[in-house]
Amino acid sequence: MRLLVDRERCLGAGRCVLTDPDLFDQDEDDGRVLLLTGPDEEPEVTAAVRRAVQFCPTGALTLSDD
Ligand code: SF4
Question: Where is the 4Fe-4S ferredoxin-type domain (predicted)?
Fold first, then answer.
């Protein structure tokens, strides 16, 4: 299971940051989501990540099976 982030769909609502501030942040310029991981690092799909995906109002966060 892999977390996919579509920054074009993100409206900067910030719910993901409230759900898991250790993984999600917002860009200071446009407010869109950023992942606090290294460039080649896959984030672990934790329960908090699943909640962030569930509560993102724009569908910018999804989980993939591949
Ligand atoms: S919850 Fe969704 S729309 Fe809001 S900042 Fe996070 S990814 Fe963007």
Answer: 1-29
